[in-house]
Design brief:
- By secondary structure, the chain is an alpha/beta fold.
- The protein folds into 2 domains: about 1-110, Rossmann fold, CATH 3.40.50; about 135-164, no CATH class.
- It is built from 7 helices and 8 strands, in the order βαβαβαβαβαβαβαβ.
- Strands 3-2-1-4-5-6 form a 6-stranded parallel sheet, with helices on both faces. Strands 7-8 form a two-stranded parallel sheet.
- The termini are far apart.
- The chain binds NADP nicotinamide-adenine-dinucleotide phosphate (NAP).
- NADP nicotinamide-adenine-dinucleotide phosphate (NAP) binds near residues 89 and 112.
Length: about 160
């Protein structure tokens, strides 16, 4: 499984869940976050600033793409026929299903939905420490605008938290 934006809020949880389910996981991140991504369970890391990941990877079964845009085509060429490609950003995921179909892959966009059973499953995983959140920064409630600016840098590692 290939996870893009592996050091981010979604990526660092996705890696832990995939690891729990027994996947072999490759994450893309900058060199500065290599150790962090390995520490949450990735087997291999690709520094996307140094290497074109699509030149390194072949026969990938599943891609969880937290970047979208040009990463869509670049990811699809790394994939096994019949694989599953999931694009998370909604603002730059146009044509995912069609492009994936042309590549012989099942392509999906998704929007998170509130689900009690899913939450319960994740709560159990947290309780048993199968997944552990990494909080890189906390902000006071009155500093929420700063928290937004921080997220918008696209450089957040793990999660940030607002403290009441
Ligand atoms: N569809 C849905 O329901 C849903 C739900 C949640 C999130 N999303 C979307 O999914 C995306 C990821 O969310 P998130 O919360 O995980 O974001 P995030 O925490 O802001 O992600 C930040 C991470 O992205 C990495 N990154 C930036 N550019 C990269 C690149 N070119 N290649 C690889 N990694 C890169 C950075 O690592 P480096 O500094 O190492 O580059 C940073 O650690 C966002 O677009 C978000 O809107 C969608």
């Amino acid at each position: 499984m290939l996870v893009h934006a592996a050091a981010g809020g979604v990526g660092h949880f996705a890696i832990q869940i995939a690891r729990y389910l027994g996947a072999y996981i490759i994450g893309t991140c900058s060199a500065a976050n290599k150790d962090f991504v390995l520490s949450v369970g990735a087997h291999k890391v690709i520094d996307y600033q140094a290497v074109a990941f699509e030149k390194e990877l072949h026969e990938i079964d599943i891609v969880l793409d937290g970047i979208g845009g040009s990463y869509i085509d670049r990811s699809l060429i790394t994939m096994k026929k019949g694989g599953v490609y999931i694009c998370l950003p909604s603002n730059n995921s146009q044509g995912v299903t069609e492009k994936a179909k042309e590549a012989g892959v099942k392509g999906y966009t998704m929007l998170v939905q509130s689900s009690g059973p899913d939450m319960q499953m994740l709560a159990n995983m947290l309780e048993n420490k199968y997944i552990v959140p990494y909080v890189s920064k906390t902000f006071a409630f009155e500093d929420i605008p700063m928290a937004h600016h921080h997220i918008e840098t696209g450089r957040t590692v793990g999660k940030i938290v607002i403290v009441l």
